[in-house]
Amino acid sequence: MDIFKQRAAEKHHRRNVYMREEANRLTHVGIEAPGRKIALVGTADSGELAPIDDPSWEIWGVGGRREWMTRATRWYEVHRLAGNSETWVETWRKQALSFNGEVDVYMHYPESGFGRVLAYPVDHIMQRFGTHFLTSSFAWMMAHAIDEMCPQGGVSLAGEIAIYGVDMEGGHEYRAQRSGFHHFMDLARVLGVRMTRLASSGISYEPIPYPMWQDDPLLNKLDKRQVHARDELSRLDETIPWTKTMIAQNEAVLAALKSDHDASTIERIEKETATLNETLQVMRDQLIAWSALETEQQWLRDYLTS
Fold first, then answer.
1. Do residues 55 and 98 share a domain?
2. Could you tell me if 35 and 175 lie in one domain?
3. CA dihedral 6, 8, 9, 15 (to 10 degrees)
4. What pLDDT band is residue 22 in, cutting at 50, 70 and 90?
5. How far apart are the C-alpha atoms of 96 and 157, rounded to whole Å?
6. Is residue 6 in some structural domain?
7. Which residue has the higher pLDDT, 290 or 83?
């Protein structure tokens, strides 16, 4: 590698490192206040940035913990374990017990063999907060944290809740769970609890509310690009079968001509067929590219509005 390529590679590396650091910076909502500090830690990659080694933070985790989850003060399991694979349940059981039985495990459906198991206060949480926004494990955990830090009819302890390893960006998780989790983050903020999130996390973005969507320039640009992408997909859906038919017809003609030894016509049709095959491959590549773009743009639109 010459010196110019080496310098360019080093610059590219430094830029990537800077971008990762910027993406992983913390964003704070609310005023810093003394009190409990609770970190809710999920299994997404950003969980490794949680203050695991800082004993001033309580670490609340979930099943399927990652290798960097070396400390926890609480585990949560809101699902009924019956029906899950025995291998998964046994792995989860070993993880919970690896903390020498000193960690509370809050369960909706308490089972033995998980160390210090406690029944999650399901009825109390539903009575206080209702059920509409309890759409995920982390919504239940947020509700529990708020209930302990801001007890009903009691003195608020304020403090801070930080979220790591929770993105809620894909499929069912994104659509069904993210709004519920956002509700409890907003509720904590209103009650005076400081909320801390990673800027790169999917839960950090505040969606554009209805009906302001119609005036947002980015959403309007996305809608225009989606129309173009779908027009291109429609064109390719029509053109590809037609091109395949032409190739098949040419191959049938070639088979007939070869028996008649019409060399000049055969050469012309072979060139035409080769060109059609090249065109077909280009269109297949375009179909993949436009399909990927359409899917990504739809994800972005959902992300900006949900």
1. yes
2. yes
3. 150
4. low
5. 29
6. no
7. 290
